[in-house]
Amino acid sequence: xxxxxxxxxxxxxxxxxxxxxxxxxxxxxxxxxxxxxxxxxxxxxxxxxxxxxxxxxxxxxxxxxxxxxxxxxxxxxxxxxxxxxxxxxxxxxxxxxxxxxxxxxxxxxxxxxxxxxxxxxxxxxxxxxxxxxxxxxxxxxxxxxxxxxxxxxxxxxxxxxxxxxxxxxxxxxxxxxxxxxxxxxxxxxxxxxxxxxxxxxxxxxxxxxxxxxxxxxxxxxxxxxxxxxxxxxxxxxxxxxxxxxxxxxxxxxxxxxxxxxxxxxxxxxxxxxxxxx
Length: 277
Fold this sequence. Notes:
Layout: E1 2-4, E2 10-13, E3 16-17, H1 23-34, E4 40-41, H2 42-50, H3 58-77, E5 87-90, E6 93-96, H4 104-120, H5 124-135, H6 150-176, H7 180-193, H8 198-210, H9 214-232, H10 238-249
Antiparallel strand pairs: 1-2, 2-3, 4-6, 5-6
Helix pairs in contact: 1-3, 4-5, 5-6, 6-8, 7-8, 8-9, 8-10, 9-10
């Protein structure tokens, strides 16, 4: 059984999908997968589906949606009644009892933890490799084809923030390993996709300057400044201004890393798991 949440919802076993077609059962399956191996309470499921205005029949309706998911899972398993051993009824809720390494979000978070451990050991090669593997699991916007209620929305925000943090950590590690040229194409795309992310711009300026593209680094800074002034009415941060001055003066990143490299990122921290209520 494999469940994917880091992109459109995927759920299959024996080569057969069991993703519900109806919107609310899809929400329930996504929420149960995020909390795989743990009970998610009926009240949590009701909050996700109806926020703070559940109908009088909400608990019964949730039960009906769970039965619909089990029906699809039974068909995928090819064994009538087997779904009850996977999507299990608990006192006060339900749990999706599947191994965590069969759900991409949990694999992603496990790799983030491994990256954190490697960073604490100063093993930059492992940090780079592990975080690249974690980021490679993403297929797009998490749960992009699921109508999200308040709990799933928070989870999607958390996962997106975690991805950006891990991306920042991986790039910072690769810069420290001297892979400046290898990063230029990626950073060109990332600064276009996230034009207000100053960490990514700092990495981009550093990579440009360390590969001998001083004029491009200065032009990139001017572009960033124009974007920030126009969009936010703000100047770039002091860190970026110091970096700009270092490049202007020729006292560049390769000589003065204190002007360029920010504090060690906390990117490889684990995000908080879903809180079952």
